[in-house]
Design brief:
Blueprint lengths: L1 E6 L12 H8 L4 E6 L12 E2 L9 E2 L1 H14 L4 E11 L2 H7 L4 E6 L4 E2 L1 H6 L3 E4 L9 H12 L10 H4 L18 E2 L2 E2 L9 H19 L1 H7 L1
Parallel strand pairs: 1-2, 1-6, 4-7, 5-6, 5-8
Antiparallel strand pairs: 3-4, 9-10
Helix pairs in contact: 7-8
Length: 227
């Protein structure tokens, strides 16, 4: 699976993709993540990619030509399943969206900055807009990193234990059950006895009950969504 990320600040994405699961996925050849500097596609001497908004108002708007040039160059090299714009007014990222995207082959992600990007980029090229929450960040790079991480870990072969991703919170519209490890007794705080007995069916039943209880207490909206 390939991600092409278009950014005016590509350096912001160096660290997230150079460590841990995302690094291993790339080394295994399961995922390819390529970051493109938008300024490389600017044609003016200053390599600027923004201009004043028509109609006045504060802030600067990212212009069409650099995005169009980069997107069309990439499209000439391969076919893309999605062109995603990370935007606070997009659909909110959830596990279901991550699952959907994990079976795609090639994805372009656009990272905005300043006041936003020219609406015509969104109208002409973008196939999907995704938000990571109801707040505004300085740019789309961190949301892009979140999206890639959420998707890549679901691709078969990325995690050492493939069942791990399937049991994550939100996979069944439930939060995960509590987890424990050694020591079994730490300063009088003990691991639940049922987890120490080795009765797998009973342990799975307990985990499901705990997941329901935790979801009901912390995120009842998830239970309503699953009804």
């Amino acid at each position: 699976m390939r991600f092409d990320i278009i950014s005016v600040l590509p350096g912001l994405l160096e660290s997230p993709f150079a460590h841990s699961i995302l690094q291993r996925a790339q080394k295994k050849g399961i995922s390819e993540i390529v970051v493109h500097n938008l300024r490389d596609y600017a044609t003016n001497k200053q390599k600027s990619v923004d201009d004043y908004p028509y109609g006045g108002g504060s802030g600067m708007v990212m212009t069409i030509p650099p995005f169009a040039a980069c997107i069309e160059k990439l499209q000439s090299e391969r076919e893309y399943d999605e062109i995603i714009f990370m935007s606070p007014d997009g659909e909110t990222l959830n596990q279901g969206i991550a699952n959907q995207l994990s079976i795609k082959k090639n994805i372009i992600i656009l990272c905005g900055h300043y006041k936003g990007i020219d609406q015509r980029i969104r109208d002409i090229y973008v196939t999907r807009e995704i938000s990571i929450g109801d707040y505004v960040l300085s740019g789309g790079e961190l949301p892009a990193a979140v999206l890639v991480d959420a998707v890549v870990r679901l691709i078969p072969g990325v995690l050492s234990d493939e069942t791990s991703a399937l049991s994550d919170s939100f996979q069944d519209d439930l939060l995960d059950a509590p987890v424990y490890t050694r020591p079994a007794d730490w300063n009088g705080h003990k691991v639940p006895d049922i987890l120490l007995g080795g009765n797998t069916p009973e342990i799975e039943k307990w985990r499901h009950e705990q997941a329901l209880e935790r979801t009901r207490a912390r995120r009842p909206d998830l239970l309503k969504r699953g009804e």
